[in-house]
Design goal:
Length: 299
């Protein structure tokens, strides 16, 4: 009944945004792939302090489509009648996934979780509902106000963090597929036992591009591809994360993932050592997950 009511509410909506909140961070890459397979576009994303990913997506009839993808609240029912839903595939309890049940609740939740707006162009629905668009990130670029605190892990002395950035061109679906290279790479990365310590979809302010270029040692032309377009930044943790990031991915590769790496790994930006990771992390983020061995403090 809830699904029928939801469908009726949004049947007149052509294109709009919908909200998804999930605690299943360990399956994040696979969740993004499922969203992309259903033709959702991610226009907002960040990790909360209690390790929940807040995701805003755009699609036709987005609220109804997302509720269908999430599946029924009863997990037993979900596994029987909605076997390919997110709850059936990844949830251990109902609260692992949340999506508002009505268009009105979705709009209200988006304004609450994304008060500064979304990383996308304006739409008629967003304009009508007063949801800001083309958001320029206001967290990035204040590294001098943050301190990265390194904590050695005596049980795992090789445990490290690495900062990884997926440029705008990796967030778009590849040719002949609905999947973006980023979602496929994130799935591979998580399959190599990297854990996500923070992440955010953002559009870099123009005045931050020179510092960004300096931090990652990229040429001017590549840096300009970030101007006015969203990118995805992540902090990952694993043994030898910074010192051997690409080698670890290559070591876990099968034929398909090797082709993926051969095609796109040169486009990923990532830390090459501990000091660079600390500087890049402070540039992008105000905190790290409580699961992380290190901390970022706001001064």
């Amino acid at each position: 009944a809830a699904f029928s009511r939801c469908k009726a509410v949004v049947s007149t909506q052509s294109t709009g945004a919908a909200l998804l909140v999930t605690s299943q961070i360990q399956h994040f890459g696979k969740i993004v792939k499922r969203l992309e397979q259903e033709e959702f576009t991610i226009v907002g994303l960040y990790l909360t302090g209690d390790d929940r990913a807040v995701v805003c997506v755009q699609a036709e009839n987005s609220v109804y489509k997302l509720r269908e993808l999430v599946g029924p609240a009863d997990l037993r029912h979900a596994k029987i009648s909605h076997q390919f839903s997110l709850r059936a595939s990844f949830a251990s309890e109902t609260s692992d996934f949340y999506a508002p049940s009505t268009y009105e609740n979705s709009v209200q939740s988006i304004k609450e979780y994304f008060p500064s707006g979304l990383c996308c162009s304006n739409t008629l629905d967003m304009q009508a509902e007063g949801i800001p668009h083309s958001r320029i990130d206001d967290v990035v670029g204040h590294a001098e106000k943050r301190q990265y605190v390194y904590h050695p892990c005596h049980l795992k002395p090789l445990l490290q963090t690495v900062c990884v950035v997926f440029p705008p061109d990796l967030l778009r679906p590849a040719k002949h597929t609905r999947l973006s290279p980023a979602s496929q790479l994130i799935t591979l990365i998580q399959g190599c036992q990297f854990e996500i310590m923070n992440m955010r979809l953002m559009t870099l302010p123009q005045n931050c591009l020179p510092k960004f270029r300096s931090l990652f040692k990229i040429h001017y032309e590549m840096c300009q591809t970030f101007a006015g377009r969203p990118c995805l930044a992540m902090i990952l943790q694993r043994e030898n994360a910074a010192s051997c990031f690409l080698q670890i991915l290559e070591g876990y590769s099968n034929n398909n993932s090797k082709k993926l790496l051969d095609t796109y790994s040169h486009m990923m930006l990532y830390s090459s050592n501990r000091q660079k990771c600390e500087d890049q992390s402070r540039f992008f983020f105000e905190f790290l997950s409580r699961r992380c061995k290190d901390e970022i403090l706001v001064l």
